[in-house]
């Protein structure tokens, strides 16, 4: 069977665009021919992030064209005439000014799907801001740490979350647009944004903010304030300075950790019987200190065998991304591949976004040298179409979801926002995420635009209902560990026999099988495998920084500086979205079902993929300083006047020249980082952050006023997001009107779908009536407790 994207011609351009590069490489891995258009100097990533360039451009070809010239612009027109997809990463209006924007290219090729990736969209006050990860994150409030930060001011983490998220969302959008084109014969214009790419990393706090506001309380955008009397994850330090990230989402996991630590006697204390939630902050802190004291008494070599012997302890040891390449489960899953590069030799790097059993995907060759290509794109017939367009890109696709918490359910929620019908199967208690942080609070995002079917799969009647639903579905997504679905009649063999066209997706924590597959996994431990500690808080992860510290000193000095952003679930959700959309495109075209494996650890490896690689001569990835102000003088947060902060990001010589002129830096050079930082610190203190943003943006220098209120408050209350359509409202069944992010990709012809969240069992009767059950049938199944009505 052909590769998923075999025969597709993709043109990608936008120098230095991480998002465009990642979107393009996913399509290249899936078999598309991807032609990367570069300037005569080469894509900026070749110098700015060489490891990222190698990974994010593997399998592509390179074509040199100077788009500032008439000749270069004509090159794009010629390419687009035979292309199926164009991925563009330039600033809004740039390509239109050159005569090669979406409208011009699509007028010449109506079958073309044009996907533009910008920072904040093409219109509104934020459109001129540079689409650099640190700037978008700063503007959106991701650097705000509130009262729980170890110092005043914003904390920077040098991970390209916004670009990574926008890239995976773009892949899903492109697959949806290709499916629409099969029906209509027409392409369309897509718009993805880096700010939408960041939305998955806000798991539930935007809901808490709105619930507090509705109660007349002052909104607090710090998730830790909302969970201060809980310990859903405990970071432990061993005697030899190694850090162990544990996840204790469920009571039995906390108890298992107590047993491993040798403090099981504390379980008899009534203050700790409700762990991982406690009556007050003091009780929670005392339980944490018991564990810290125990682990600090022995080296990692003592604890590791004990932790591994207890399957109910969810944990991982803090490592760098390069260390993560050697994780036994990463290796078992095939999430590391080795590509031979003509100049650098073998490069070990992240594997494909998903493992398909009938149409495997993955890289075939390394990133191209400049202008290394196989000639012009070969023209081919585009789909004839003839049918009317659906309302939404994935309309007509039904996905059945069987899983809980965030990683898998939010991946399918993003697909639901693009128009898929997603039916969530729940038992009588419902997804435990529904009550993790207050009734229905945490599940607001994960159940949006879905339908809930509540059945008892332990009964033959409940299993029969679920199987009937899957028999009519296009995909089934299982988020549990191997064996759970099989015991309940929802295994691959059983369901594929019922529905041979079914795409069966196992989106597990560690994987479908292998040495760690039986273990539970949650966000904090999942991201640890991929090297989040090394990338986000690398300075303080070094055992030398905490050598000899007591537990009290650890708590006062080190642990506050190891407070990372929790991205383990959001990264996994985004990669699942991309892989699921690829699989659905394939099954819709061929009518052939297959088995697809993804994992949380594999998804997180993709988020850190520019450092999740190793080769001879690999340069060190830039990390933040010990206080997390930035990676250099030109990628850093600075205090401005009147208590504000700016984030500066300069990526080119032209931008630095403009900065130097605007700031009056004289002879200070970019190479003298200390002198440059000192000069910039003095200059930024002279004006407000808003003034600097306006003046430097006008000079085409990357600078924004840092939002210190936090991402959730920005999402909920920012008027520019509402005016530009980046946020929307819907009617939540419990909380009433709620603000949330718009569908992740905008489409010119088939827009995404905005629909409210669901409560458990809300759609029982509608779904069962559709399957042919009468009211009497449903009543009988309810009497048998095979179908559980909503509370």
Automatic annotation (TrEMBL):
Keyword Transferase: yes
Sorted UniProt keywords: Transferase
InterPro entries: CoA-transferase_III, CoA-Trfase_fam_III, CoA-Trfase_III_dom3_sf, CoA-Trfase_III_dom_1_sf
Pfam family, one: CoA_transf_3
Transferase listed as a keyword: yes
GO molecular function: transferase activity
Region (Disordered): 342-361
SUPFAM superfamilies: CoA-transferase family III (CaiB/BaiF)
Name of the protein in question: CoA transferase
Lineage: Bacteria, Bacillati, Actinomycetota, Actinomycetes, Mycobacteriales
């Amino acid at each position: 069977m052909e590769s998923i994207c075999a025969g597709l011609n993709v043109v990608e351009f936008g120098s230095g665009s991480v998002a465009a590069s990642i979107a393009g490489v996913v399509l290249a891995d899936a078999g598309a021919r991807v032609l990367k258009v570069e300037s005569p100097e080469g894509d900026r990533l070749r110098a700015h992030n060489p490891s990222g360039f190698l990974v994010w451009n593997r399998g592509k070809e390179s074509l040199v064209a100077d788009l500032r010239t008439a000749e270069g612009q004509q090159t794009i027109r010629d390419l687009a005439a035979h292309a199926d997809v164009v991925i563009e990463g330039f600033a809004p209006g740039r390509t239109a000014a050159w005569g090669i924007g979406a409208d011009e290219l699509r007028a010449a090729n109506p079958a073309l799907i044009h996907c533009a990736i910008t920072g904040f969209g093409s219109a509104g006050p934020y459109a001129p801001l540079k689409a650099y990860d640190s700037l978008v994150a700063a503007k959106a409030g991701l650097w705000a740490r509130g009262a729980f930060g170890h110092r005043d001011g914003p904390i920077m983490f040098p991970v390209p979350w916004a670009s990574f998220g926008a890239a995976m969302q773009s892949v899903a959008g492109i697959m949806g647009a290709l499916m629409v084109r099969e029906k209509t014969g027409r392409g369309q214009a897509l718009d993805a944004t880096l700010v939408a790419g960041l939305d998955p990393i806000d798991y539930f706090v935007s809901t808490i903010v709105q619930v507090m506001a509705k109660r007349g309380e002052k909104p607090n955008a710090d998730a830790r304030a909302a969970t201060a009397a809980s310990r859903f994850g405990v970071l432990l330090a061993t005697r030899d300075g190694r850090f162990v990230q544990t996840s204790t989402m469920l009571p039995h996991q906390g108890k298992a950790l107590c047993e491993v630590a040798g403090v099981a006697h504390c379980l008899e204390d009534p203050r700790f019987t409700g762990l991982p939630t406690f009556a007050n902050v003091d009780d929670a802190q005392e339980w944490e200190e018991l564990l810290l004291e125990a682990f600090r008494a022995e080296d990692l070599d003592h604890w590791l065998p004990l932790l591994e012997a207890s399957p109910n302890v969810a944990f991982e040891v803090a490592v760098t991304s390069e260390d993560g390449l050697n994780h036994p489960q990463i290796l078992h899953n095939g999430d590391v591949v080795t590509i031979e590069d003509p100049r650098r030799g073998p490069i070990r790097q992240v594997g494909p976004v998903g493992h398909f059993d009938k149409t495997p995907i993955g890289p075939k060759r390394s990133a191209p040298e400049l202008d290394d290509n196989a000639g012009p794109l070969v023209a081919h017939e585009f789909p004839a179409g003839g049918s009317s367009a659906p309302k939404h890109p994935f309309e007509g696709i039904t996905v059945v979801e069987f899983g809980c918490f965030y990683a898998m359910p939010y991946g399918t929620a993003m697909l639901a926002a693009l128009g898929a019908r997603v039916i969530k199967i729940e038992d009588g208690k419902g997804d435990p995420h529904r009550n993790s942080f207050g009734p229905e609070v945490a599940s607001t995002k994960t159940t949006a635009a879905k339908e809930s079917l509540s059945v008892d799969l332990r009964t033959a009647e409940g299993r029969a209902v679920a199987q009937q639903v899957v028999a009519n579905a296009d995909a089934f997504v299982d988020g549990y560990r191997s064996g759970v679905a099989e015991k309940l009649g929802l295994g691959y063999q059983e369901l594929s026999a019922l529905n041979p066209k079914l795409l069966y997706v196992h989106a597990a924590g560690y994987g479908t099988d292998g040495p760690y597959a039986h273990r539970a996994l949650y966000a904090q431990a999942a991201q640890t495998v991929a090297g989040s500690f090394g990338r986000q808080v690398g300075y303080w992860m070094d055992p030398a920084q905490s050598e000899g510290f007591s537990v009290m000193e650890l708590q006062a000095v080190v642990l506050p500086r190891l407070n990372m952003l929790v991205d383990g679930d959001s990264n996994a959700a985004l990669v699942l979205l991309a892989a699921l959309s690829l699989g659905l495109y394939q099954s819709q075209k061929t009518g052939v079902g297959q088995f697809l494996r993804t994992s949380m650890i594999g998804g997180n490896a993709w988020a850190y993929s520019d450092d999740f690689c190793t080769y001879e001569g690999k340069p060190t990835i830039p990390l933040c300083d010990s206080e997390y102000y930035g990676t250099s003088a030109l990628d850093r947060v600075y205090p401005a006047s009147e208590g504000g902060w700016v984030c500066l990001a300069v990526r080119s010589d032209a931008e630095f020249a403009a900065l130097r002129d605007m700031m009056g830096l004289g002879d200070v050079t970019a190479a003298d980082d200390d002198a440059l930082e000192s000069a910039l610190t003095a200059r930024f203190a002279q004006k407000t952050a808003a003034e600097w943003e306006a003046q430097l943006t006008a000079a085409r220098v990357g600078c924004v006023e840092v939002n210190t209120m936090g991402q959730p408050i920005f999402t909920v209350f920012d008027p520019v997001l509402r005016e530009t359509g980046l946020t929307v409202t819907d009617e939540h069944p419990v909380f009433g009107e709620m603000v949330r992010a718009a569908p992740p990709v905008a489409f010119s012809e088939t827009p995404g779908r905005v629909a409210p969240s669901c409560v458990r069992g809300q759609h029982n009767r509608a779904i069962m009536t559709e399957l042919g059950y009468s009211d009497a049938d449903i009543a009988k199944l309810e009497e048998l407790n095979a179908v559980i009505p909503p509370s």
